[in-house]
Write a structure and sequence with these properties.
Structural class of chain A: alpha/beta
Distance between the termini of chain A: 53 Å
Largest interface: A-B, 41 and 41 residues
Radius of gyration of chain A: 22 Å
Number of helices of chain A: 23
Oligomer: homodimer
Largest sheet of chain A: 7 strands, mixed
Shape of chain A: globular
Chain lengths: 431, 431
């Protein structure tokens, strides 16, 4: 009778019948981390559609690690990445921009034993315009691809955008192609990179659909309600979509790349707001006989107005777009970038500025690669030697050439190149 | 304020936000016909997974027409079908086995104006073994294909069976191929017929997936809950599956057949338990700019034990299988076919038998094409001149050669033929 009661309780908590040997472990954690939980306790709100912090310093990422049940990227892991890759860690890693992970040690264990893995990241193409924040996962993913010499799949969730936004299928697909050009402009190796539109690839790969259905069989509405906060009046497309974002985590979804191998480990670099999808994926994986993907999580790229929210493509003044002219970049930063400086020059010289909330400084941590220069700027701003206007000027002069170069590279991306990247085909990789 | 209240009420009833010009018409009817409604008022239970009648005469089909909001196939429609096709109506039509329809007059209107339509039917491949009841929609569909000279698509819902049953993807796909052989053995024209596995075709046709997503965007969980009785602990695959059964109702799902035309009307011959899927489809169609499919509904093929339930592939004694030997057919009918005769020969001679509940007689209405012979049997059985054993003998002698011939034709179906029928390709048709 006790056993029976336990089974009933189990079902209420997990939405699944109890099966011996199928622990829902991570999933239980998930149920306590849904948007509902976020709403009531006044903590930072972080899910795939919303990010808002309760503090001006932005989201408390240490708390998020505890809530999401992931692990901090510590000094030991950093050193291991450097040892295994034989390269100095990317400044996104050194500066804690990629700050959290799941199972990264297992990926490195396998790689040390000459077992390849692959990278999976993605983009929701909700408009033509991408902003600098959208580049973060791609810049980092390119670095991973280069240092580990491994294949990469990039999912363009045009079906998701169709389901969530007031857009037609044709618009979403067009945004996929336009955004793919920006992604290709990041310098990915066409011999190691497959970019795919869900709308196209679902209809081009029976193996991909098979994995989608497998995931869909093993996740209940109760579970996606707990994880994503879906309600009874959400459309059935939204409710089943998480399975489509899950499927690329399994190498068998890409037989053209992995020759039908089911056991090539997957590493997903993404912003931490995407973690709910992969907590779900990791919960399902062992129940369908597949490997759990590993993850590397980044912080959010803050809006110009401050770190309480992330950049949004729908508010033009919150973001620096990849299409902005040098003049627009200059004006936006001067006008909108939240300053951590004091109200008057006198006060600033006397008390110094606050780099923890200063958006211009935060942006430099993303894009100024020179550690010494950055350290010097921090010292000078904190001491008051550097004024807000001067700090903004440094950022402007960092971003203007970076974006101009991106525009130049993007111009050179032809339709044929896009076609090539988006054609299902074998890729070259090390092992 | 009244308007606001109306909108709230509307949302509660339909699960959708109110939009001017998008009537939920049929859908509202649907909400009152879900399994929940069936459960409480003790009426016949009819949904895609359950059929059970409260009377020994079987389901009350007239009541079902009212409940489902379809139309009776009346004398006028019968005569019109004969006029337009230039053929005597099939005995399934003459005898009320196909008894209900939606928009069949519109199909005939279009056909008279030399506008083609296409047929769509399907099968859920839950095992290798099909029984005689499974042939009904295919026998009738073949007749429609022949008299109207039009293309046919046959959906094998192997993904559905994977989601609902304790089967692997490989098993479901194998059942698809095995069942396809039985379907091909019904005599379909390979130049006019496309049979597809969902597991394969979803991954082979971006246009099919696009229609699935369109449907998925326009149906809420509330709606499928009302229509199909899904609950929060159902997997997300079941919840979104109805969109996959809906999509073949739209000619744009088959660009290889219709060259991208969105406006070729679709006629679906099916057993009435599949109607919930198409009520949903017809509700969605105008909201995604596509045509509502028309339907022809059949009654259920009764189990040997009586008309209260339909034949089931999982209970071997409830069905005559297409693989049964002449001896098995004889034994099953003699042993299990529910009799409408009296307890003793004396009583039977005196009072006569009841053809309304006699399963052997019911089966003859399906498979004995000769109207006069059937009428004579009815008279003799009702008068008591014909004994139950003699009636069973007539059925046995009707089914044995029919099934032997089916087995013979099935043996001649090669793997290459199956391959041919299941390859996406252009089809030949009249207009």
């Amino acid at each position: 009778q006790l056993l029976l009661k336990l089974k009933v309780d189990y079902k209420q908590m997990t939405g699944q019948d109890y099966k011996a040997g199928c622990p829902p472990s991570e999933n239980l954690i998930v149920s306590n981390n849904g948007p509902a939980a976020d709403d009531c306790d006044g903590e930072d709100l972080v899910d795939p559609w919303n990010v808002s912090a309760s503090s001006t310093k932005g989201v408390d990422y240490d708390k998020l690690i505890v809530r999401f049940g992931s692990s901090k990227i510590d000094k030991e892991l950093l050193e291991r990445i450097e040892k295994v890759s034989g390269q100095r860690a990317h400044h996104f890693l050194r500066r804690g921009i990629f700050f959290s992970h799941r199972d990264m040690h297992q990926i490195l264990d396998a790689y040390e034993k000459h077992k390849s893995f692959y990278l999976y990241t993605g983009r929701g193409p909700s408009s033509e315009a991408m902003h600098v924040g959208h580049l973060i996962p791609f810049i980092f993913t390119k670095w991973l691809q280069d240092v580990f010499d491994i294949p990469l799949v990039v999912q363009m969730t045009d079906d998701e955008k169709y389901l969530w936004k007031d857009l037609t299928l044709e618009e979403c697909h067009r945004f996929t192609v336009e955004n793919a050009k920006d992604i290709i402009a990041c310098g990915f190796d066409v011999n190691k990179t497959f970019i795919f539109s869900d709308l196209d690839y679902m209809g081009a790969s029976p193996q991909f659909y098979r994995n989608v259905v497998k995931v869909q069989k093993h996740v209940t509405f109760n579970q996606v309600k707990g994880i994503f906060g879906f309600t009874d009046s959400d459309c059935i497309g939204k409710i089943s979509f998480p399975a489509i974002q899950a499927a690329p985590s399994f190498s068998s979804s890409f037989p053209q790349i992995f020759g039908g191998k089911k056991d090539v480990p997957c590493l997903i670099p993404c912003a931490i707001d995407q973690d709910p999808y992969f907590r779900m994926t990791r919960d399902v994986a062992p129940r369908i006989g597949l490997l759990k993907p590993a993850l590397l999580h980044s912080t959010f790229f803050p809006a110009l107005q401050g770190a309480q929210t992330k950049m949004s493509a729908s508010d033009p003044n919150s973001s620096i777009f990849l299409t902005d002219t040098p003049k627009q970049i200059k004006n936006k930063i001067n006008k909108h970038a939240f300053s951590g400086g004091k109200d008057t020059v006198e006060e600033h010289r006397k008390y110094g500025g606050n780099t923890e909330v200063d958006v211009s400084f935060l942006y430099l941590t993303f894009f100024l690669e020179d550690d010494e220069k950055l350290e010097k700027i921090k010292e000078d701003y904190t001491s008051g030697a550097l004024l807000t206007g001067e700090l903004k000027k440094i950022l402007i002069e960092t971003l203007q050439p970076m974006i101009a170069q991106h525009q130049e590279r993007r111009k050179q991306v032809t339709d044929e190149m896009v076609q090539q990247f988006m054609t299902p085909r074998p890729l070259n990789y090390k092992f």
